[in-house]
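TL;DR need structure tokens for one chain.
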Amino acid sequence: MRLQLLYSFELEPKNPFNFYLTASCYNFNWWFNGSKCLIPISKDPPLIAVAHHPHDKVMMDVYGEKHADHVNVEEFVEWALGLNEDLMSFYNVIEDDAILREVPKSLRGMRMRATSLWNALLIAICQQNASFAQGWGMLCRIYRLLGLEVELNGIKSILPPSPRDFLTSEAEAKLKEAKVGYRAKTIMHAASMIEKGYFEHLERLKDEDAEEKLKEIKGVGSYTARLTLVLSQRRYGLLPLDRWLKKLAEEVYKLKNVEEELKAKWRDWCGLAVFFTTVVLDAEVLSKALRRALNGDVKPSCQSEKLTPLTLWMHTIC
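>> reply
TL;DR here they are.
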């Protein structure tokens, strides 16, 4: 499907801001090409924004089939890129952190890109009991098999599938082809609940209540629910704790009551701290991540030959 340019606008990020790092991290090559970052807004109607950063402002071109509300798109893009986030307090919390101390230096100005509740659920479910490469490989195949291919100004991209796309007679077979395993049932149940409007006012709930609400999806536990809320609503007070992070905290920080002590250590920035922990350690498998952290090797790799969160866009993984 070929989309047309609808309009353009510019946004001014709060400094410090690093567009390249923000756009490249945990991204596919159909959404980032080294200079332009494509931000999917909706599949129905098709709507996508293209961001580039030639100077102090972020320039945005919006493509679609018909007119879209200008104000809503501006707000969505500003929120998705975290342009108004002030990370100085976060940097102060982690400046002497054994794992995260490189973030205010090597990754200064980088923001976590946020996404929709549905897309965040897909990411979190695919990451269950999976390595970085496995989880993002599943997600890649889901997008290719169920997403909508679009072309805008010569750029080919993909709009992520909507929950409705997982409620068709063909969805189960496509999820099997995507090799998501047991996660297929969880994805389809989540899609059904979202389509029924079950999480319509989730943003109004307190963190704990929102987590419990998401856990009503069969196959979604605390880790998946919290990660979803961090990625979709920037609820940084939540701590997505899995075995990988728990072991790192026990060995590197010498913590016993990991959840309680990490919350005290990272305060209101737990969710963002977890995100950056995966980035600085290149989302390595536990044994390698642990060895690196204990040796003080906490500077992320940007070498193209190695698959990491920062170089994912340079690789074809599905």
